Amino acid sequence: MLNVGKIEEGFVLDHIQAGMAMSIYHHLQLDKLDCTVAIIKNARSNIQGKKDILKVECDVDMLDLDVLGFIDHNITVNVIKNGEIVEKKKLQLPKQIKHVIQCKNPRCITSIEQGLPHVFVLADEEREIYRCKYCEEKFDRRDL
Amino acid sequence: MRHLMNPLDFSVEELNRLFDLANDIEADMPKYAHACAGKKLATCFYEPSTRTRLSFEAAMLNLGGSILGFSDAGSSSASKGESVSDTIRVVSCYADICAMRHPKEGAPMVAAEKSAIPVINAGDGGHQHPTQTLTDLLTIRSLKGRLDNLTIGLCGDLKFGRTVHSLINALTRYDNIRFIFISPDELRIPDYVTEMLREKNIPYEEVIRLEEKMPQLDILYMTRVQRERFFNEEDYIRLKDFYVLNKKKMKLAPPDMLVLHPLPRVNEISVDVDDDPRAVYFKQAQYGVYVRMALILTLLDIHVD
């Protein structure tokens, strides 16, 4: 069995759906951070069968948890300080997300206007439906 | 500072105040003849829409204000590649209020975010056309005396017709509204609209024949089957004559039913219906001017005693 060492300060993102770790790595823009990241794929899980885990050694304020909540709000976020779990954060669907997904409506102003942010607003929490702020194009988060 | 992007931007109470003002303008136009003296309206139309543009311009001129602007993208700096964000910042220096039409959905909202003056969405692609909805509501309220307890038939292109979707959304805020959707299968009302009505417990029916439900209607809202909404010419030609309102069909309608149409019509309402007192689509165009006058005054926060 593969062992990955403890981190002193940062996050352990647990219960990531198997196969999604790299996607989360990119969405959290971890490639742009100068910190240690461990990506564990297909770890054994009693609940999920298989799961991915991300360990990120960084300042606890550096991650945008809204993005994480959008990608998968079932992920467990363990906040680590001095090598110990000090908090388990509960993720929620964010009210608004910016630059995570792009509006695919070819008639949307975002398709031609330079420099416009791609902003989606939570329209239906129960059904996890977001809509483009500008053209109201629907995005079903479960299709992610 | 407020903008108007969507008909639902105003609460029911705010709409009531707007419509009261529009009716006061209708009753006493001279009182408002100089209300906007020294103010300028910019009409920024990135695609041609003579009717809407003239209605806005007439509204501002009736209020004693001035107008400036462009009527298609080719005659604006957009043809040189200027962004909407930049254009509105420049227009903000020239005018006090702006009405913007744009083929791209959400463009007026981009303008509103950067603007120093109120922006009115005068139609953004197939998305919203709030002043048309305000016109429709004012027409119904003025001629029927109410916006609740109504059975409304919507006929024609219910799939692509943004005026229809906006009007439905706006009417769902009033009590005891019932919708009857009359369209061919190809142009049926989208599922998201019927889903929304089911969630709000608002009754609706979908039928194919116009004659079938005529006797039950308080309002018949006719729409044009628009060529530009079709990807293929054959479909357009096949469907455009599907629903034509004529004198014979009007005989089936109640004596106080009103026929509305956002105009321009092609042939979906036969000209022999025009003289019927129930045909109010040209009055509707007049109400469009009154409601735009009331909107300009409201957004500019101008009060006339």
Any overview of this molecule?
The complex is a heterodimer of chains A (144) and B (305). Chain A has helices at residues 21-27, 65-71, and strands at 10-17, 36-45, 49-57, 76-81, 84-89, 96-98, 119-124, 129-132, 138-140. By secondary structure, chain A is mostly beta strands. In chain A, the strands form two sheets. Chain A has a five-stranded antiparallel sheet with strand order 2-3-1-4-5, with helices on one face. In chain A, strands 6-7-8-9 form a four-stranded antiparallel sheet, with helices on one face. The longest helix of chain A is centred in the first third of the chain and has 7 residues, at 21-27. The radius of gyration of chain A is 17 Å and the shape is elongated. Chain A starts with 9 loop residues before the first strand and ends with a strand. The mean pLDDT of chain A is 90. By secondary structure, chain B is an alpha/beta fold. Chain B contains eleven helices and nine strands. Chain B has helices at residues 12-27, 50-62, 84-94, 107-114, 130-144, 162-171, 191-199, 210-213, 233-239, 247-250, 281-299, and strands at 40-45, 66-70, 97-102, 119-124, 150-155, 177-182, 204-207, 219-222, 258-260. In chain B, the strands form two sheets. Chain B has a five-stranded parallel sheet. In chain B, strand 3, helix 4 (107-114) and strand 4 (119-124) form a beta-alpha-beta unit. In chain B, helix 3 crosses helix 4, helix 5 (130-144) crosses helix 6 (162-171) and helix 5 packs across helix 11. Chain B is globular and about 55 Å long. The A-B interface holds A 105, 107-116, 132-138 and B 83-85, 102-107, 109-110, 124-127, 192.
